[in-house]
Amino acid sequence: MEPVLELRGINKRFGAVQVLTDVDLEVHAGEVVALVGDNGAGKSTLIKVIAGVGLPDAGEIRWEGKPVVVNSPGVAQTLGIATVYQDLALCDNLDVVGNLYLGSEIRRFSVLDEVAMEARAQDLLRTLSIKIPSVRIPVASLSGGQRQTVAISRSLLGEPKIVILDEPTAALGVEQTAQVLDLVERMRERGLGVILISHNMVDVRAVADKVAVLRLGRNNGFFATGETSQEEIISAITGATDNAVSRRRARGEYQEGGS
Amino acid sequence: MSSQEGRPPAVKPANATAEAAQVDPRLVVSQEGFKGYLHEFIRKIKGGELGSLPVVIGLILIWVVFQSLNSNFLSAQNLSNLSIDIVATGMISVGIVFVLLLGEIDLAAGSVSGVAAAVLAVVNVNKGWNPVTSIILAVLVGTLLGFVHGWFFAKIGVPAFVVTLAGMLAWSGLQLQILGPNGTINLDNNGLVSKLTSSYFGELIAAYGLAAVATLGFFTASYLGNIRRKAAGVPVRTLTDLIIRTVGLGIVAFGVAYVLNSYKGLPVALLIFLLVCVGSDFILRRTVYGRKVFAVGGNIEAARRAGINVASIRISVFMISGGMAAVGGIFAASRISSASQATGQSNVLMMAIAAAVIGGTSLFGGRGSTFSALLGMLVIQSIASGMALQGVSNSIQFMVTGAVLLGAVVIDSVSRRSQKAAGRA
To answer: Does the global pTM surpass 0.90?
Structure first.
């Protein structure tokens, strides 16, 4: 099957620093790809390239098989790429409906159609099983998890094909994390491709189908979550062949071989 | 059973349970009826959502005090004159509200209004242009000056405070330049421009008709909105709530109409100002453009990511501010039938900003309404008028107005804090 989004040989350089070197990435429909890597591995830069915020210096982006130039966030949105950034960027002074429809307001005789927006917002939140006291309260009064779900639902309004989630569970409680992960699974069921950036291996293993590891701006392995242990992923992230984790692993293999 | 619970039995039980399952159990459902309305009101006040309540209370207080000092204060003539006196600075204040919603400030509005008055006088009197074209040109000049501020702010990134401070100085000079050596140009006393602030709709039906249209229009719009909301399955306002609001509006509207009709009738300037207030409030609350202004005032990054062109919103808001300042300048010139070096100078700008803030528009951006220009100007002009009736000097008047402004900002800051505590800011 053809991937929805395909990156080939992406290079990006900031001054003297080569941030990305020949990075590849594939995302299929109905697939959750976790993008992991240590701080400074180039995750954010790669996301910016996909979201149209930063142009790559070299490399090719293919959308449904065709090469495209994503040179602005608008182009990315029109293609069907939605991005939920870590800092969420919601307007605290607007209510949930206002935030959900910001930039894509429904109009009726060129006047804001608050009724239609509110009704559709309710429907959307209901289909995603998101619980929010009222869609008419300012976003300022929502909890961190609720704000996250509002930000994610907002990205789904444009009927995207790929959703990029940047650290969606950072700073969330146990219950809220579970809610967000549930939401990610419902997005997969809807046939969306999800790129999930996370430092949390438990979350990654819970929902991701594939794990793409970045290390120092290069691909450092693609893993199918089901067939890979957490240690393998961690050693790919840290680049360590000689650390406590790998040593322990080596001992295990030795014992297996010996018996 | 159901009567004990105080609500009608569910019509569709299946739907009702599905609905109930969706509702967050932590949500406190407001009670129905008048009692519920009162509870909701008290809760909002405690939560710091004061809206225009402080300014209304303040206004009533000011009126009671001045009326007890001088029984002419609440006379039809004084109130009618007061309603015209608020228009010039009020127009400038409407533009200031737009800028404040972005969390910025426009210090050049006073000078811009002076330039517009000067342009109007020169082309209308000296060049003999027809008044309508002169007014249009003056407003265009104001909008252009606003564009200059907005461009330097949005595109170059100079803080709005500095750009408009520079504008304030520069446009004062431009105003003197345009007026020429005489410094004062008298307008035709019977010309259209002068008549803007000296004409009245004398027929009784004008003021009462306007009051009736406003009240009925409000009720019809709200009622039809409720029907649509019910059809779409979203929460509706209770009918009690709707009736209370309509009656409240009706009392104010017909009261004002009665007072105006007791003197010369509905002033043309006041009608224009009210239309501007209603129109700009509609733009801010019911159009995509207004939503963008609030979004930029709330969170610039969120606005940018939502695809809003932040620079163009900023420039357009400063253009509105410049244009409204020009309109204010025209009314100021009309009120005294002349444009002079003093038009738009001294404390006009400060009064316009003070009015917006006293009326309840936040200095911190993202919260406010153009009606605050109307309410704030009523407070300021009432103080000025009351003091003038008492023969109090300007010095005291400025100090009192300053204290009122400080009080308004204190209320703004405190209500913001309690809104934070109540999780609504």
So the answer is: no
